[in-house]
Specification:
There is one protein chain. α11 packs antiparallel against α15 and α13 runs antiparallel to α17. The two termini are about 25 Å apart. Strands 1-2 form a two-stranded parallel ribbon. The chain folds into 2 domains: about 130 residues, no CATH class; about 130 residues, no CATH class. By secondary structure, it is an all-alpha fold. It is globular and about 60 Å long. The chain has 17 helices and 2 strands.
Length: about 325
Amino acid sequence: MQVDLELLNNLYLSPLMSLREKAESAELAKSGSVEVLRARLIQHQILGHLDLSWEGIQSMPHKEIGEVLKIFGIKSSGSHKERRQRLWLHLNFDSRRMTIERLAEIDREKLHELCQYLELPLTGNRTVLMGRVAGVLTSQSKGWGRIKRSLRRNGIVIVSKNENNTMDKNDEELVKLNHSNEDSVLEIVDEVSNAALEDAHDSLMIGFEDAEFGIQGDILTIQARVEDLDRMISTIIKNRNGVWGVKENDLLIRLAIRRGWPLEDERVKQRLSKVATNIAEIKGADLGGVNDSEVNKTGHIDRIRNKLSAVEDILSGEENN
């Protein structure tokens, strides 16, 4: 996909007032935050030849939408549906305002509309619809609304101003340098079957059917991330040599909390732990783990601790991108 790299780089690095001036010159609305303005300018000045309406996004091939996300400077990995959701959110909302907390202020009609545009089921009461939207916002957290930190800091590396500043297949590698942390172990681990994921999804809600509104919302949010849960478990198991025990489960909980999962309630936390252990067992993990005395006898306690730290660094690195 060919774009003006020099102009794109300038938009990445421009402050709010400069972006407002550019929007005014282009006869575009100059309201909104720096990220909203930047997205608007990229849409009209860099990608003006593309139909970025909801219908246009729906018709984009998987590869093309990934390229468009990179041009906007946001996360480009994920399934085709996740990419469509992320691009639509980035073009239509301010991530500082469209938050899970603010969903409580939205009426059912608007939630129904959001579910339609986010390609979610449209049935259910207001609580169910809100949970579905909250699940998407959680799964897409930090993937849209702000360009990547490296782009804000350094922009795009342009080889020469005298050369034709267009993005062809070779130039795409320059942009990939700023997305190097996007790939992680989570994208290459083996996943359990769809049936097992469906069982995990259903198991999360067992016993919470009549729970209070907030708890049900928390469960619905976690249900929407069951595939992420599967990948997180796989990463931990691989870095713990096939072991799943109390320490591994505690690490999972810490990572989930760091990623914004709603785990304040102890009951929700315990249910997630049980479901995670079931998934780990399906993956063939050695349940129970290795106790401290056995580890000390073999002299490997420091190595185990280092591996746990490495897992946290791997997953938090993806979170910070």
